[in-house]
Design goal:
This protein has a domain of 160 residues: Umud Fragment, subunit A (Ribbon). Helices cover 10% and strands 32% of the residues. It contains one helix and 14 strands.
């Protein structure tokens, strides 16, 4: 009769299991880090400049591969590049983009692209015109402005390529509501906040101005979390449009 192997059925040494779990954590952490660096980046909405599309407390996932890579989307890997790689993907009108504004202090902004290179952009009483043609907008309602007795108007604006989104307007006679005509330079984009009376954007040439393609970080895709004294469950996983 064969003698039973005394080692059969013995438990795996604890140090082997610990090494396996540690290796798993390292691998998973490496995958998450690679995704964070190369594919997606979370971005917190700090202000109301994109209301009603995005509100303070929203966290959006930004696709870094939508327009290729540049010095601001991969600062450690491609620092010093003067243009994006690969170069075939370009922003379209209506895209909500995250970018770094040119200046001494690096600041990330999130706005909507309305003007492409060569476009002529102007606002008159908050009506956006592209290349001399007014962009259609439809009034869809009013709402109270928090902390004020004023009421703001919501519109649905539809760009020439069919992209439709909501804007918020407080005063059609404000400083930002009436602008000169801007001609977007080659390789740059004109961006606006959806909250038209409360947004620092391309209308302010000394603060944001035209956005160079190399300053783009990525395109906002969807809301992954939202909180304001509690989770806003109705906003989770909404696509950013």
């Amino acid at each position: 009769m064969p003698v039973p192997d005394s080692k059969a059925g013995a438990k795996k040494p604890r140090h082997s299991r610990d090494a396996f779990f540690l290796a798993t954590i390292v691998v998973v952490g490496g995958i998450v880090a690679c995704l964070r660096i190369l594919v997606f980046q979370p971005f917190n909405i700090p202000s109301g400049s994109m209301v009603p599309t995005l509100v303070p407390g929203d966290y959006v996932l930004v696709s870094k591969i939508s327009y290729g890579y540049g010095p601001y989307s991969l600062p450690l890997a491609v620092g010093g590049l003067s243009r994006r790689i690969p170069g075939g993907w370009l922003p379209q009108r209506g895209d909500v983009v995250v970018f770094q504004a040119s200046g001494k202090t690096p600041v990330d902004f999130i706005k909507r692209v309305v003007g492409l290179p060569g476009d002529r952009i102007q606002l008159a009483k908050n009506v956006l015109s592209i290349n001399g043609v007014a962009v259609p907008r439809q009034r869809i309602g009013d709402e109270a402005v928090e902390g004020s007795s004023q009421r703001a108007t919501r519109y649905r604006e539809t760009l020439p390529n069919g992209v439709s989104y909501r804007t918020l307007v407080l005063n059609d006679n404000g400083v930002l509501a009436n602008t000169p005509q801007y001609t977007v330079p080659a390789g740059k984009y004109f961006v606006l906040g959806d909250n038209r009376d409360n947004s620092v954007d391309s209308r302010m040439l000394n603060q944001v101005g035209y956005v160079p393609a190399e300053n783009l970080i990525g395109r906002a895709e969807f809301i992954v979390f939202s909180s304001n004294h509690g989770v806003r469950w109705d906003r989770l996983f909404q696509v950013v449009r």
